[in-house]
Structures are given as C-alpha cells and as structure tokens.
Recover the amino acids of this structure.
C-alpha cells in the first residue's frame, strides 16, 4: 500500500511540474505573438464564412474630409475629446430649432484613428461633384421643402418612417443584425428596422420595373469576403445616396472575432461624376442580439403630425386674411 501511495504521489508531482513549466513558458512568451493573436475564421454548418451577430457601425468620423484637411486622431484621448465636442455641439441651441432629443439618446461610437473621413476614394476624401441632372433634382427637392405639405406623401421618406439609408455610413445608432441561412444572408437594421434579404444562389436581378426601398441584392463569396451587388432602388426623390440608378457594391470581411471590415462603392452616373468608396470597421456588440432595440419611429412620430398641422394652420391663416380678418379664427 505504501509503495502504491509513493507511486501516485510521484506521478502527481511530475504532472504538476509539467503544468508549471507550461504556465511559465506562456507567461514568458512575448505579448502579441502569433499564438496570442491567432484567430480562425468561423464557419456556418454548411461551410460559409460566419458573419452572424449584432454589429455596430457608428462613428463620429465624418463622411467627407473637412475642407481644412481635418485632424487625424492618433490617441484615445483625442478620440474622447472629439466625442465630447460633438455632444456639446448637438446640445447647443440653434436659432429657430426647438430640438428633438438631446445627446443622451445618441450613440456616436468611436472616432477612427488615422482617418479624417469615411471616404477613401477619391483620395481627397471628398464626394465627387454632382452632375447637372443631379443639381436640378437637388434644386427641385429644396423647392418642395419650401412648400406647405399637402399630405404625408410630400414629406421625406425618413420623416415618414419608411426608410433610412441604402448603406452603412457611420451615422448615429447604427446597429445591424446579420443572420445567415443556406443560400441567404439577411441584414436587419435597428433604425426603421429595415430588412435586406441577400440571395446567394446566383439568381439574376429583378426586372428593372420592380423597385424597392433597399434595392435588390445579390451576394457571392470571394474567399472569406461577402460581396453584395445591389440595384433596382426605388426613387425616393431624395438624392442623399444616389438616385434610382444607383449601383451599390458592398464588401464584408470578418478579420477577427469582433471586427468586420466594411467597404461600399457607389456608382450612379446620373448623380456623381465618378464612383466613390467608403470604408469603416463594424464592431461586434458584446450584448449580442440584446443590442437591437425597438425603434419606435411611427409611434412617436409627432414631427410629421406637427408639420402637417402647421401647414393647415398657415393655410387657414391665409384664407382668413383674404376674407378681411387679421388671423386664423379660433
């Protein structure tokens, strides 16, 4: 019995020595080595690169590079100062603007280090010039904005809570849930809860007379990069992100467990004189699907009610004035 006890004890000591040696070796290994940085591309059960999760695309880095060149952020402190300055500007009163909600309700994300704009092409970080046709559309949109709205259809699609934007642009509150299934990728945006279904089975685009707010998306894999080709956009009469002729190509590349590199190229010869490209990282939300909250736009859309009510009040005032009265009747 005594010999068995000694044998077991010796074995335990040997195992302990080996374990201790491994711990010491790892502790002495230089930080940042291939072992500590190693990340393996995860895949779905059917073999596609796994992009699933909730991702945050918010950043205060502007779309365009400022005309004065802008400041390149190099440290965490500079990023923090930028966030504080943007919150201060948002809270500052603007003449004639009653305000909607304060900076507490906005998630602005982190500034991108080493960048002065989200636009990476053209190299100057600025939007290409508008075409003459696009300038006419912009003038028409401004003219519509000056007129009293006869009904909801005269208001922008954002004000009507119908659609927000066509791509990821780094604005506030940009959370996206990506879900995959064999032959499909779906992207759900928290803002307006827009849903995009990306078909991965090689089917052609819809006929040109079929138009959708988020366009018609077809996807393919180039290595581990998801390439999404989108056409057939509906005409919103708002050319912020191109006309109905926009051709959008997006690339989603997961580079580690918590980051997807996103890139989008916009081509619309009826809006800009040349294509242009934006790029920004998408960061995985540590709270998972909990990060996508309800976005109650219609339920709290008092802006549209106020705009239409104000238009009717102005019309009554004009009518009463034409009848010889000084103002609207009570």
């Amino acid at each position: 019995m005594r010999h068995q006890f000694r044998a077991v004890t010796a074995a335990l000591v040997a195992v302990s020595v080996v374990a201790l040696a491994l711990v010491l070796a790892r502790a002495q290994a230089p930080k940042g080595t291939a072992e500590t940085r190693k990340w393996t591309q995860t895949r779905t059960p059917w073999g596609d690169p796994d992009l699933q999760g909730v991702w945050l695309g918010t950043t205060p880095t502007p779309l365009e590079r400022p005309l004065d060149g802008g400041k390149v952020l190099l440290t965490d402190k500079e990023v923090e100062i930028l966030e504080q300055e943007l919150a201060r500007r948002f809270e500052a009163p603007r003449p004639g603007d009653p305000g909607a909600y304060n900076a507490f309700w906005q998630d602005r994300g982190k500034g991108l280090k080493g960048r002065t704009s989200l636009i990476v092409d053209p190299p100057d970080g600025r939007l290409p010039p508008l075409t003459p046709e696009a300038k006419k559309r912009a003038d028409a949109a401004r003219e519509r904005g000056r007129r009293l709205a006869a009904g909801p259809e005269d208001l922008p699609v954002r004000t009507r809570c119908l659609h927000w934007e066509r791509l990821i642009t780094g604005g506030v509150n940009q959370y996206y849930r990506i879900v995959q299934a064999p032959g499909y990728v779906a992207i759900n945006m928290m803002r307006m809860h827009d849903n995009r279904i990306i078909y991965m089975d090689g089917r052609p685009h819809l006929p040109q007379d079929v138009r959708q707010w988020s366009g018609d998306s077809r996807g393919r894999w180039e290595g581990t990069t998801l390439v999404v080709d989108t056409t057939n956009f509906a005409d919103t009469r708002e050319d912020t992100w191109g006309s109905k002729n926009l051709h959008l190509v997006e690339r989603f590349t997961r580079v580690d467990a918590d980051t997807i590199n996103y890139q989008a190229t916009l081509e619309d010869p009826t809006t800009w004189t040349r294509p242009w490209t934006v790029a920004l990282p998408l960061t995985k939300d540590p709270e998972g699907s909990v990060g996508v909250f309800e976005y109650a736009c219609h339920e709290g859309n008092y802006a549209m009610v106020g705009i239409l009510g104000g238009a009717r009040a102005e019309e009554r005032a004009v009518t009463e004035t034409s009848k010889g009265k000084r103002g609207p009747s009570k």
